[in-house]
Amino acid sequence: MAQCKRFEVRASEGGKVLFSADEDEIVIGADRLKVTGTEGAVFGHSVETPHIRAEPSQDLKLESPTRSLMMEAPRGVQVNAAAGDLKATCRKELHLQSTEGEIFLNADTIRLGNLPTGSFSSSPPSSSAPRQTIYELCVCPNGKLYLSPAGAGSTCQSSSNICLWS
C-alpha cells in the first residue's frame, strides 16, 4: 500500500505523463488505452470519447445487457457500413421518427415483406383463372400498408377489410 496526494507515471523519453492519479481524477495520457480482460471494460457512469475502435479484424460490440443503449449528439448521429449490411433488429416495434424533417429511403429496390393481401374479385373465382402477379400498394387510414390485386382501376377501397382487422 502506498499513500500520497498525487501519483504520476512518466515516459522515460520526453517525460510525458502516462498516468496520474489524485483525489479528484485519474488521467491516462498514453496515445492508446488497451483493456485486455475477457469481459472488456465496465463503466459505472457515462463515457465521453471522440473515438472507440476495435482491434483490426475484430468486431466492436456496445452492449447494455439489462437496459437500453443510447447514442445522442446535438448535431446528428451517423451510422455507416462502408462494405457491408446495416441491420436493425428488435423484438417489438421499430420506430423511425423525424420531428421536423422527412424520412428518406434511397435505394435501387425497397422491399416491404409480409404485407397482408386484401381480397378483391370482380368475378367469381375460377380454377382456370391466371394467378394474380400484379398488386397495388394501399394505405389504411391508420397508416397500415397492404396489397390489393391490381385491376383496371384502384381496388384499395374494395380490399379495406384489411383495415378493419387492424
Automatic annotation (TrEMBL):
**Xref: Pfam families:** Sarcoglycan_1 (PF04790)
Q: Which GO terms describe its biological process?
A: cardiac muscle tissue development; heart contraction
What is any one of the record's Gene Ontology cellular component terms?
Answer: cytoskeleton
Record's bilayer topology term: Single-pass type II membrane protein
Alphabetically sorted, this entry's keywords are: Cell membrane, Cytoplasm, Cytoskeleton, Disulfide bond, Glycoprotein, Membrane, Signal-anchor, Transmembrane, Transmembrane helix
| Similarity comment text for this entry | Belongs to the sarcoglycan beta/delta/gamma/zeta family.
Record-given protein name: Sarcoglycan zeta
